[in-house]
Automatic annotation (TrEMBL):
InterPro entries: Glyas_Bleomycin-R_OHBP_Dase (IPR029068), Glyas_Fos-R_dOase_dom (IPR004360), VOC_core (IPR037523). PROSITE patterns: VOC. It comes from Pseudomonas boreofloridensis. It comes from the Bacteria. Residues 1-127 form the VOC domain. CDD domains: VOC_like. This is VOC family protein.
Amino acid sequence: MKIVVTRILVDDQAKALAFYHYILGFQPKDDIPMGRHRRLTLTSPNDPNGVELLLEPDTHPAAQAYKAALKAEGIPATSFAVRDIQAEYTRLCASGVQFAQPPTVTGSTTVALFDDTCGNLIQLSQRH
């Protein structure tokens, strides 16, 4: 068994696609119309056949409440591993990404937390 798709709830799929593709660097994979929304997935450029990130609309009231509660508590919606967190932090800051927490060492991992502009906090992590 393996993970093939994971999702992130977003408030606007077009805005999310722009952020996750152009700012974070994920590559679009599927873009399938589904009524008012789309099945919109991206993958890592280093693993185009790997796990897909589904940008799922947060149209259900429970989804909106869940996202808001996580964000209010400073809990990330998901985490992305990076090889050099300081370089990613510098690159993303230069692109205008707003960080809630700069790179911080937490035991054998360094983590940073940023706002994805779509209602979520996202964690970057680098293991040492």
